[in-house]
Amino acid sequence: MATPAAPRDRWLGPLLLRLHFYAAILVAPFILISAASGALYALTPQLEQLVYAEELTAPSEGPPLPLAEQVAAAQAHVGEDAVVTAIRPAPESGDTTRVMYADDSLGESESRAIMLDPATAEIRGDLTVYGTSGSLPLRTWVDQLHRNLHLGEVGRLYSELSASWLGVIALAGLGLWIRRARRARRTRRTRDLLLPDLQARGYRRTLSLHSSVGAWVLLGALFLSATGITWSQYGGGNIGTIREAFGFTTAAVSTELPQETTAGAEGTSDTGDMDGMEGMTGKDSGEHAEHESHHEAPAAGAAESAGPGEAAAAPRADLGQIDRVLAAGRSANIDTGLVEIRPPADAGSAWVVEEIQRSYPTKVDAIAIDGSTLEVVDRTDFAEADLAAKLTRWGIDLHMGSMFGLVNQIVLFVIASAVVAMIIWGYLMWWQRRPTKGGSGFGKPPRRGALRRAPWWGAALVLLAAAGIGLMLPLMGVSLAAFVIVDTIVGRLRR
Question: Terminal CA-to-CA distance of the chain, rounded, Å?
Answer without folding.
Answer: 33
